[in-house]
Amino acid sequence: MWHQQTLSLSAKARGFHLITDEILGQLPVMREINTGLLHLLLQHTSASLTLNENCDPTVRSDMEQHFMRQVPENAPYQHDYEGVDDMPAHIKSSLLGVSLLLPVNRGRLVLGTWQGIWLGEHRIQGGSRRIIATLQGE
Description:
22% helix; five-stranded antiparallel beta sheet; three-stranded antiparallel beta sheet; 138 residues
C-alpha cells in the first residue's frame, strides 16, 4: 500500500515545536498499516524537521537559544533581502534537515519513549508550513 498526502501545519512563532500529534491527527490512514514506513518532507527552506525530547519543553527553548548563538542574525550574510532572519533560517534548515523516515508498526509510529517530531521554525514569522507525508506498508 502507498498513500501520499500534503499535511498543513498552522503558523508558529520562531522556535522548536512538538508537532507529533498535529501530524498524526491528519493521518488516520496510518491505522491501516501493519508494518511500514512514514516519510515526511517539509517543503520549506527556512524551517526544519527533527526528532527529539517530547516531554520537557525547556529542551526546545534550550535548542532555540543554542541555534540563535551559533547562527546569529547579525552576521555579514550576502543574502539579506528577505530580512535578517532569512539566511540564518536557511543555515539552520540545512543543519537539521527537512525530512524524516519513521517506522510504523500496527498502525502507530515506532518512536523511542522520549522522542517526538519537532518543527524548527527559524523565521520570525514563517507562516503556515506544508509537509508531504508518504506512507508505504502493508
